[in-house]
Design a protein that fits this description.
Blueprint lengths: L16 H7 L10 E6 L5 H13 L3 E4 L8 H7 L4 E6 L6 E9 L6 H17 L2 E8 L5 E10 L2
Parallel strand pairs: 1-2, 1-3
Antiparallel strand pairs: 3-4, 4-6, 5-6
Length: about 150
């Protein structure tokens, strides 16, 4: 009627739901870092659980995969929303228990890889007494992100 049309009978209802919705603020969820751990040797299962527990204590989400081909694990991690992967390997080099190589995906800041490496090194060195070296050169010339040496710190 207010716009010039004929009278139209109707039933209306209003609860002010929009106003209630404006009162509650929904926090914007940022994409969280989620770390995948790929133990490439069955003897590294215990160490991968130690690493996962340490990263979780520091507020990171961690995804562990033990079954299947190590080559297919990164794609499995990607399906689960993993942003970085720590590959644990057992080289055939005397004095080295394992190596850890990190790979960061999904355009996280460059500091993400360094933060993860520092968390890993701190946990393995301080809590478990393992000697950990950053950017270790293997005898074949290949440089790994982290090397966990077999000897314990005294």
């Amino acid at each position: 009627e207010s716009l010039g049309g004929p009278h139209t009978p109707a039933v209306g209802w209003a609860a002010g739901i929009e106003r209630l919705g404006m009162l509650t603020s929904v926090p914007v969820q940022r994409k969280r870092e989620k770390i995948g751990i790929v133990p490439e040797h069955k003897d590294l299962s215990n160490l991968s659980m130690i690493i996962a527990a340490s990263l979780r204590r520091n507020g990171l989400e961690v995804e562990l995969l033990y079954s299947g081909s190590p080559r297919k694990m990164p794609s499995k991690h990607a399906d689960r929303g993993v942003t970085s992967v720590a590959y644990l390997n057992k080289p055939n080099v005397p004095g080295i228990f394992c190596t850890i190589n990190l790979k960061t995906y999904r355009k996280f800041s460059h500091s993400t890889e360094h933060r993860i490496a520092n968390l890993l090194m701190t946990a393995l060195a301080s809590k478990y007494g393992l000697e950990v070296v950053r950017e270790y050169r293997l005898p074949d010339g290949y440089i790994v992100d982290i090397a966990v040496l077999e000897s314990k710190k005294s």
